[in-house]
Amino acid sequence: MRIFHLAPALLVPLAVVLDIAHAPPALVFLASAVAIVPLASLMGLATEELAARTGPTFGGLMNATLGNAAELIIGIFALKAGLIELVKASLTGSIIGNLLLILGLSLFVGGLRHQTQSFSRQAAGMNVALLALATVGLVVPALFDFTHPAGDAVALERLSVFVAVMLMAVYLLSLLFSLKTHSEMFRPKVEHEPPKWSMQRAVVSLVVATALVAWLSEILVGATEETIATLGVSEFFLGIIIIPLVGNAAEHGAAVMMAAKNKMDLSFAVAVGSSTQVALFVAPLLVFVSLLFGNPMDLAFTAFEVAAVALGVGVVTVISLDGESNWLEGAQLLAVYGILAAAFFFF
User: Fold this and answer.
1) pTM of the predicted model as reported, rounded to 2 decimal places
2) Which residues pair with 214 in a beta bridge?
3) For residue 1, what pLDDT is reported?
4) How far apart are CA 64 and CA 251, in angstroms?
5) CATH architecture group of domain 2-346
6) Which end of the chain has fewer beta carbons closer than 10 Å to its terminal beta carbon, N or C?
């Protein structure tokens, strides 16, 4: 275990050196992806220590926020390069991946070890309601784009900015609700282990690990186009499956680790809360950033993307209604993700 925790000190420099030395892009891509894995483990440990001091809601929020920093940085660099469709695909892919893949893995691993697990129905219900709102925010611009007879790009851009403002406002209100006015609703009724790290160590570890994940994710973006050309997959598949898969490695490690320790409230907060933040905060923020670059990004996603997000939200809603989970429900989420991934591959 100690060797695994020391892995970033070896793998991160290796990935950076390969990138500087202009090694084959596929090798740079692989080295960067492998280096992210132990960093994700470190983020999970740091989040657990923070949650022991501040509660699972704030701990899960911090993990989702810092974990999505990589997603945000990738999006900013891609927007600057004019890769708007790639950014939009990565946003929907991140939402779907967090909902189906990360939560599915968490329920599956946790269910194998603890048979039946429970989590706060109230917290889960609020997250699902926010995701339903986010789905509306994705559907309306898409419907406008599909049905507007003149195909007015300026009107679509203005509508997207308005929707982005509304989504971000609701996200900020949700933080006020869950962390301030109704925080008692999101405190699990379980005994917490005493923290082993100091607050300073936990925060520094989480921030440094997240910064390194973001750096490695940037390296990945630089190597992806040539890598994908070598592998023969589409840019759409790259954006909706591969980039979110790598960028969300931190959430994978943290959420699955918490589920394995029977801390489903924190695991659920990390996985579903990350999807919520991507939809209600990261996507709107990237809309505003695109305006600064003079290359506006709208929120008119493809019909297939919107349908996939809606299906993912619907499945998670059904599973979270009873406040309990098991390994079979996790397997079902993974199956849905596999079906969608195959469809995106052939899209």
Assistant:
1) 0.83
2) none
3) 47
4) 7
5) Up-down Bundle (1.20)
6) N
